[in-house]
Every structure is written in structure tokens, then in C-alpha cells.
């Protein structure tokens, strides 16, 4: 099993307590919400219980279970991405081959082979994808296909694998939280940033940022959410990470900004493809990509911020 420090156990209990409060609030709001509004809220909270339960179980079982979990997560996300892309018939064989990149990338993570982990997809796979498409002999739509497949593997596999690699960093460098503490810090702040921006936007948002892409994104929601996430980043950093509070401010700010960009980027993808959600896999939330859109941007940025400031 992974070594869970008192701080990480306490953080898990805090998250569970927040879900309990959300569930109780949901019951209290039943008479004030419409039937559809209450059903959506209930589905979202129930889905959060399942997602938190799965993540925490994997983290508590140990590193192997955690790696398997993130491997499956990337696989489902990559499959979901390919399911919404306008894929050429001739490319199906290449897409099947690209799924092999998922276990390979997490194999490098499990080995702790940082050199291969950091270059396998953005260097080797980036060169192999256009070569593979050339071998299929179809030139129409070639540039779009190359860019789509490269970006799909970068976001769903390469970016998300940075979360798993946090568990491989030397535990002695973070006695407060260990690898699990780093994962909880990143994932909690990323998801908290989404919620904070939503609440600030609902309460004070009037001026839209990019209404053509995401009508619900407002300047008040963006600034309020980033400020709140930055504050919590500073408060939680000494508790779960090796970062002092002032570097925690930087980490929180980075997560707030990157989370907003990731969310907005996937919204643009859905607008382009004229879909509301990437799938219906998670009741009340949509698909895997709808849930990890912010994490695809915050994970690699936080990882390298942490490595270059601490390890």
C-alpha cells in the first residue's frame, strides 16, 4: 500500500465531509428546485461520490492500483476523444495502434523512467503519427487528421499521466503528504477551481469573456475563481506538498489559470463539433473529457512547477 500520512488521511476525510454537506444541502433544496433541476443536482452529487470513492480506493490500495486506474482513465478519455472526432475510414487501423500508447506511457511512469516518459509522446509518437497516416495512402484531410490525433494523445494520455507520475516522486522529499498528497492537492484544487468559478459567476457575473465559445464564462467567475483557488493553494501547500505557502500561491494561481483555459478549450472543441457533452458516461457531468478538461492542462503545468521548484 502507499504510505498515507496523517495529512493525506485528513484531506480525504475533509473531501468526504464536503460531499456529506453537499448531499444534505441537496435534500434541503428539494422543495425549492424544479424537478429537472433537482434531478441534475442529485445526479451530479451522486456521481461525485462514485468518482471520489474510486480515486481514493485506488490511492489507498497502492501504486500499482493507482497506475492501473490512471491507465484506464486515459484509455477511456482517448477513446471518447476519438468517438467525437470526424475520423476518416482509412485511419481506423492507426487509431487502434494509438491505443497502445496508453499502456506504454504508463509503463514508463511505473518504471520511473522520466526521460522516456517526457519524450515518448511529444517526440516519438508525434513523428510516427504522420508517418503512419502516410503509409495508409490517403492525403485528403491529412493535416487535420495529424493535428487531431496528436492533440488527442497529448491531452488524454501525456497530460493525464503527469498525475500518476506524482506518485513516483521521492516520498522523502514530501514528508507532509507523500505522493498521494500531491495528487489530492492537484485534483482537489483543479475541481475546486471549476466550482469556485461557477459560483462566483452565478453570484456576480455579468460581463461575458468569450460568449461565442462558453456563454456562462464571466470575468467575475474567472477572477473570483482564480483568486479563491490561489488562496487555497497557499493554505494547502504546506499541508500536502513540499511547497511553502508563498510557492503555494504560485501553484494555486497556475492551477486556476490553467484550469480555466482547459475548460474553455474543450468547450471550443464541443462548439466546433456541435455537441453538448463528449458522452453520457457520468450522469450529471457528461463524459470523461467534460470532467478532466481542466486537469489535462493543470496536471503537466503543476508537475513541472513542483519539480523545478522542489525536487
TrEMBL record:
<dbReference type="GO" id="GO:0005886">
    <property type="term" value="C:plasma membrane"/>
</dbReference>
<keyword id="KW-0472">Membrane</keyword>
<feature type="transmembrane region" description="Helical">
    <location>
        <begin position="114"/>
        <end position="136"/>
    </location>
</feature>
<keyword id="KW-0808">Transferase</keyword>
<dbReference type="Pfam" id="PF01148">
    <property type="entry name" value="CTP_transf_1"/>
</dbReference>
<dbReference type="GO" id="GO:0016024">
    <property type="term" value="P:CDP-diacylglycerol biosynthetic process"/>
</dbReference>
<feature type="transmembrane region" description="Helical">
    <location>
        <begin position="90"/>
        <end position="108"/>
    </location>
</feature>
<protein>
    <recommendedName>
        <fullName>Phosphatidate cytidylyltransferase</fullName>
        <ecNumber>2.7.7.41</ecNumber>
    </recommendedName>
</protein>
<keyword id="KW-0548">Nucleotidyltransferase</keyword>
<keyword id="KW-1133">Transmembrane helix</keyword>
<keyword id="KW-0812">Transmembrane</keyword>
<feature type="transmembrane region" description="Helical">
    <location>
        <begin position="49"/>
        <end position="78"/>
    </location>
</feature>
<dbReference type="GO" id="GO:0009273">
    <property type="term" value="P:peptidoglycan-based cell wall biogenesis"/>
</dbReference>
<feature type="transmembrane region" description="Helical">
    <location>
        <begin position="220"/>
        <end position="239"/>
    </location>
</feature>
<comment type="pathway">
    <text>Phospholipid metabolism; CDP-diacylglycerol biosynthesis; CDP-diacylglycerol from sn-glycerol 3-phosphate: step 3/3.</text>
</comment>
<dbReference type="InterPro" id="IPR000374">
    <property type="entry name" value="PC_trans"/>
</dbReference>
<feature type="transmembrane region" description="Helical">
    <location>
        <begin position="148"/>
        <end position="168"/>
    </location>
</feature>
<dbReference type="GO" id="GO:0004605">
    <property type="term" value="F:phosphatidate cytidylyltransferase activity"/>
</dbReference>
<feature type="transmembrane region" description="Helical">
    <location>
        <begin position="180"/>
        <end position="200"/>
    </location>
</feature>
<feature type="transmembrane region" description="Helical">
    <location>
        <begin position="9"/>
        <end position="29"/>
    </location>
</feature>
<comment type="similarity">
    <text>Belongs to the CDS family.</text>
</comment>
<feature type="transmembrane region" description="Helical">
    <location>
        <begin position="245"/>
        <end position="266"/>
    </location>
</feature>
